[in-house]
C-alpha cells in the first residue's frame, strides 16, 4: 500500500506539474496564440488520451477481469459505457444549472472534470501493480500511463489558461485557473489508492470507467476543437502523433 501510494503521488504529482508548466505559457504569450499551434496541441492531447485509454486502462481491465474469473469483456464494456454516460449526464446538468455560457469557462470545467478520471487512472494503475505477483509489467504500464498523461497535460494547461488570457483575464488569474483545473488529479489519485484494497473486484470496472470518461472528453471537447474549418490537417496530424508516441511509450516500457 505504502509503495503504491508513493508512486501514485509521484505519478499524479508529475501530471499536475506538467499542467502547471503548460498554464505558465500564459506569461510568454502577450497576444493571441497562433490558432494552428492550438490545433496541434489539442490534437496531440487527444491522441495521447486515446492511446492511454486503450493500452493503460482497457487492456489491463480485461486482463484483471480474466484473472478474477468470469467474462473479461463485460466489466470493460460496461465500465467504459458507464464512464461515458457519467460525463454526459454531468455535462448536461452543468449546462442547465449554471450561466457559464462563455466557451473558455466551459473548457475549464471540462478539463477539470476529466482530470478526475485521469488521477483515478494513475492511482488505480499503481494500486493494480502492487496487488499482483507479476508487478514488473504492470508497474511499467502504470509508469507509461503517468508519463503519457503528464505529457498531454502540458498542452492541456495551455489550453485552459491561454483562452482566459485572450478574453481579458489577467495572466496571474488565468494561470491560477489552469493550476486549479489540475489540482483534482493528485487528490483523486491518492484517494483511489487508499481504498483500492477494499475494491479489488471492482478495479476492472473502475479502470474501464476512467477510459470511458477520457474518451468522452476526447470526442466531445478535444477533437472538435482540434479540427480546422478549412483544409488544414494540423489537428489530425497532432492526434496521430500523440497516439503513436503514447503507444510506443506504453509498449516499450512494458517489455
From TrEMBL:
The chain crosses the membrane at residues 6-29, 41-62, 74-94, 106-126, 138-162, 174-199, 205-223, 235-253. One of its GO terms (cellular component) is plasma membrane. Keywords: Cell membrane, Membrane, Transmembrane, Transmembrane helix, Zinc. It is found in: Cell membrane. One of its GO terms (molecular function) is zinc ion transmembrane transporter activity. It comes from the Bacteria. It is a multi-pass membrane protein. Belongs to the ZIP transporter (TC 2.A.5) family. This is ZIP family zinc transporter. It comes from Frisingicoccus caecimuris. The lineage of its organism: Bacteria, Bacillati, Bacillota, Clostridia, Lachnospirales.
Amino acid at each position: 500500500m505504502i509503495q503504491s501510494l508513493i508512486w501514485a503521488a509521484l505519478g499524479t504529482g508529475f501530471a499536475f506539474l506538467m499542467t502547471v508548466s503548460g498554464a505558465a505559457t500564459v506569461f510568454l504569450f502577450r497576444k493571441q496564440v497562433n490558432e494552428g499551434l492550438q490545433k496541434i496541441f489539442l490534437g496531440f492531447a487527444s491522441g495521447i488520451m486515446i492511446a492511454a485509454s486503450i493500452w493503460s486502462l482497457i487492456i489491463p481491465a480485461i486482463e484483471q477481469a480474466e484473472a478474477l474469473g468470469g467474462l473479461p469483456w463485460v466489466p470493460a464494456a460496461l465500465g467504459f459505457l458507464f464512464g461515458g454516460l457519467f460525463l454526459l449526464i454531468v455535462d448536461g446538468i452543468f449546462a442547465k444549472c449554471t450561466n457559464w455560457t462563455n466557451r473558455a469557462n466551459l473548457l475549464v470545467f471540462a478539463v477539470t472534470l476529466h482530470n478526475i478520471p485521469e488521477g483515478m487512472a494513475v492511482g488505480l494503475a499503481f494500486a493494480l501493480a502492487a496487488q499482483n505477483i507479476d508487478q514488473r509489467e504492470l508497474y511499467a504500464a502504470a509508469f507509461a500511463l503517468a508519463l503519457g498523461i503528464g505529457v498531454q497535460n502540458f498542452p492541456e494547461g495551455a489550453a485552459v489558461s491561454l483562452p482566459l488570457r485572450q478574453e481579458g483575464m489577467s495572466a496571474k488569474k488565468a494561470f491560477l485557473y489552469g493550476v486549479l483545473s489540475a489540482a483534482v488529479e493528485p487528490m483523486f489519485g491518492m484517494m483511489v489508492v487508499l481504498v483500492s484494497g477494499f475494491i479489488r473486484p471492482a478495479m476492472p470496472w473502475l479502470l474501464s470507467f476512467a477510459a470511458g470518461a477520457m474518451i468522452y472528453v476526447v470526442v466531445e471537447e478535444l477533437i472538435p476543437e482540434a479540427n480546422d474549418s478549412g483544409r488544414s490537417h494540423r489537428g489530425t496530424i497532432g492526434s496521430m502523433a500523440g497516439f503513436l508516441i503514447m503507444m510506443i511509450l506504453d509498449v516499450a516500457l512494458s517489455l
